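During the reporting period the student researcher (J.K.) took over the structure-prediction task from the postdoctoral fellow and processed the backlog of single-chain submissions. One of the processed entries is reproduced below for the supervisory committee.
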Amino acid sequence: MREAAQALGVHPSTLIKKINELEGALGHALIERAERGRGMRPTPFGAEVAQAVRTAIAGSSNRAGPLRSPG
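J.K. obtained the following structure tokens:
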């Protein structure tokens, strides 16, 4: 978690809080928690979400022009 937080430029506790908020909003766990010092891995649902995000990002980079907010 520390390495991921560092790569994102945030404190690990901030990253954990945001993951917990996202899991609450989605109603499912995204990662399997491990004991301190052990690696974590995505749940099957988390892996599906990660793939959907990758697909969305790849699709948005193929669009012509900047993204605009609706409304």
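The committee noted the following: Strands lie at 31-32, 41-42.
J.K. will present the remaining backlog at the next meeting.
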